Amino acid sequence: MRPAGVLSGYAAGLAVVFAAAMALGSAVGPVGTAGTPAAAAHDSHEEPQAQAGAAVGGLAVSEAGYTLQLAQPVVAAGRPADFRFTIGGPDGQPLRSYRTSHDKPLHLVVVRRDLAEYRHVHPVLGSDGTWSIPLTLGRPGPYKVIADFVPPGRTSAVVLAADLTVPGVYTPESELRPAKTTAVDGYDVTMTGALVAGGDSPLTFSVSRAGQRVPDLQPYLGANGHLIVLREGDLAYLHVHPGSSAHEPLSFVADVPSPGRYRLFLEVRHDDAVHTASFAAEAGAS
How far apart are CA 81 and CA 269, in angstroms? Predict the structure, then answer.
């Protein structure tokens, strides 16, 4: 194919994705609305016993003087990409120093808008302030990139988000129905509790395999488990850690901001592998 044909085909693929993204945006509201809170409520050094998200993040590309800047806002489906980005600081220069939070200087979540694809990864920081990581996204569609980090001089995280496009035909998956049990990698994970908007929501997760409880979950990123909560539509973000020292069951306290549907991603480590269980849940009014 001649270069002009390649470019026109690529543009057509982009048009399909952008049209789908715009349709989704009109249904659920704009992403990155100015003035939306973007600081998550977790500390980088003293881990609370029960950690709730007092404020959601991931709704703005800039917050508190920091800006998420993607080197490439478009990546091809199914192909490894050398994904790079910087965090611009208040001085306009790439931030080069970060406080460690749960064993890492920065946590990166990449999720498709319909929540059908999810990655929680940890890029490498270069000397010039550029973060990089090999990233492969399997299916076309509009994605959101969420960076969760603690700058020097702060004790709470800044959570920024930017849009990422994977060109091609985007077919959103149907919504998951709320369920208390899900299966992943040969494990069964059961959730006890319910989300209530505007207050503490205690949640407990039990992990079993072949009908037997798994008592020996391994620490992962400085905790016995991690719970990422995303609001369907705008993908408002909470990162919550368990409050119990016991490995299993895992107890969390989430604080979701509004009634509606949420997707919960529970990350646990067992047999030296990380397993991510996905739940859909409906938050009722308090």
Answer: 26
